[in-house]
TrEMBL record:
Gene3D superfamilies named among the record's database cross-references: P-loop containing nucleotide triphosphate hydrolases (3.40.50.300)
GO function terms (MF aspect): ATP binding; phosphomevalonate kinase activity
Coiled coil: none
Protein name: Phosphomevalonate kinase
Primary localisation category: cytoplasm
Origin species: Ceyx cyanopectus
Any one Gene Ontology cellular component term annotated for this protein: cytosol
Entry keywords, A to Z: ATP-binding, Cholesterol biosynthesis, Cholesterol metabolism, Cytoplasm, Kinase, Lipid biosynthesis, Lipid metabolism, Nucleotide-binding, Steroid biosynthesis, Steroid metabolism, Sterol biosynthesis, Sterol metabolism, Transferase
NCBIfam families (UniProt xref): Pmev_kin_anim
Pathway: Isoprenoid biosynthesis; isopentenyl diphosphate biosynthesis via mevalonate pathway; isopentenyl diphosphate from (R)-mevalonate: step 2/3
E.C. number(s) listed in UniProt: 2.7.4.2
Name of the encoding gene: Pmvk
InterPro entries named in the record: P-loop_NTPase (IPR027417), Pmev_kin_anim (IPR005919)
Domain of life: Eukaryota
Pfam families the UniProt entry points to: P-mevalo_kinase
Length: 147
C-alpha cells in the first residue's frame, strides 16, 4: 500500500513490506485486497498518489500492476509515456527465491499486464549484468533525448 495512513492504521513496517520476506508474505493477500478496494472506488488512486506534488522532466514509475495504471499515465501524460517491461525466466525467479502462490501470483495484481499491453521496451533480467547493460543503454539514450 502506498497510503501511509493504512500502514499506520495497521501498524505495518513499510521497509519490511518492500522485501521478499515472510513478513511481507504474511500481509500480501491483505494488501492485495486493500488495493483492489481502493481501485474499485477510484481507479487512479495509486497513480495520482505516486505523482502528487512533484514535477519531473522524466518519470520512472516502477511496479504498475494493471492496464488501468498504464492507461492513466497515458491519458495524463500522453505520448511522453514509455512503457518498460522487465522479464525473467521462471528458473531465474526461483533462484531469487520466488515461489508461486496460488491466488496471489495468478491474481491481477501480479499478472494484470501479462497481456493486452504493447510495451515500448522489454528488458530481460536473468542475472547477466552485461546483457542487462546492453539492453538498458538504448532506453537510457532515449530518455536522455527527451530531456
Amino acid at each position: 500500500p502506498t497510503d501511509p495512513l493504512s500502514l499506520q492504521e495497521h501498524d505495518l513496517d513499510f521497509q519490511r513490506l518492500l522485501d521478499a520476506s515472510a513478513y511481507k508474505e504474511s500481509y500480501r493477500q491483505d494488501m492485495i485486497r486493500w488495493g483492489e478496494e481502493k481501485r474499485r472506488t477510484d481507479p487512479g488512486f495509486f497513480c495520482r498518489t505516486a505523482v502528487e506534488g512533484a514535477s519531473q522532466p522524466v518519470w520512472v514509475v516502477s511496479d504498475t500492476r494493471r492496464l488501468s495504471d498504464v492507461e492513466w499515465f497515458r491519458d495524463v501524460y500522453g505520448d511522453t509515456v514509455q512503457t518498460v517491461r522487465v522479464v525473467a525466466t521462471e528458473e531465474t525467479r526461483r533462484r531469487r527465491n520466488w515461489v508461486f502462490v496460488s491466488g496471489v501470483d495468478d491474481a491481477e495484481s501480479e499478472c494484470g499486464l501479462d497481456q493486452g499491453v504493447a510495451f515500448d521496451w522489454v528488458i530481460t533480467n536473468n542475472g547477466d549484468e552485461r546483457s542487462l547493460d546492453e539492453q538498458l543503454e538504448p532506453l537510457l539514450q532515449s530518455l536522455r533525448g527527451r530531456l
